[in-house]
Amino acid sequence: MASIDSMNALLVDELRDIYDAEKRLTKAIPKLARKATSDELRSALEEHLEETEQQVQRLEQAFEHLGERAKAKPCAGMKGIIEEGDEHVGEDYDDDDLRDAVIIGSAQRVEHYEIAAYGTAIAHARLLELDEVVGLLEESLEEEKAADRKLTEIAETVVNLEAASEDDEEQSGSRRFATSSVRATAQAQGRRRSSARKK
């Protein structure tokens, strides 16, 4: 293992880590897309797969600017996130919407990891005044942030609502009872406070 003896060497090491992460994702994203039942979710994943392939190319350009060979260093963090995602998505779900909700959660863990990795690499490239490298990495960072926002939007407007509506149908009777009990308790407490203030 080569020693990291400068900020430049640190940046190269970080880019090799991200390079491995992105290459792993070009294999992982299609698996998630195949398991997704929401058309919007599948479309978002397929769109981000294309972006991920472009991000791999941008990293290769960044290595060129640094005079380094494009070489991956095994990214243990991304490997773990992908394995955990595969495990969760592979569980038995009573409803496809629940699986879609899990796919979104897994994909967002990926995005957040990448956002942190790109942010750090950009900060180091800026210190070294490597404007071309900064530009390439910032383009990828913006795509990661946009993908994360898109996943949040799909979760909040479609998938989570549909997954929760299944619960509503199953639990509507018990929920109505619980809600009326809570309301009755709150009203009783309100009457007690009111009478205490009058005294």
Describe the model:
With 199 residues, the chain is mainly alpha-helical. The protein has a single domain (7-168), classed as Ferritin (Up-down Bundle). 85% of the residues lie in helices and 0% in strands. The chain has five helices and no strands. The protein has helices at 7-35, 39-65, 76-89, 96-127, 131-198. Helix 1 runs antiparallel to helix 2 and helix 3 packs antiparallel against helix 4 (96-127). The radius of gyration is 24 Å and the shape is elongated.
Quick structural summary:
By secondary structure, the protein is an all-alpha fold. Helices cover 85% and strands 0% of the residues. The chain has a single domain, classed as Ferritin, core subunit, four-helix bundle (Ferritin), CATH 1.20.1260.
Structure characteristics:
about 200 residues, mainly alpha, Ferritin, elongated
Number of strands: 0
Q: Assign a percent range to the helix content.
A: over 70%
**Overall SS class:** mainly alpha
Number of helices: 5
- Which whole number gives the mean pLDDT? 87
Q: Outline the biggest β-sheet.
A: none
Distance between the termini: 78 Å
Radius of gyration from the CA trace?
Answer: 24 Å
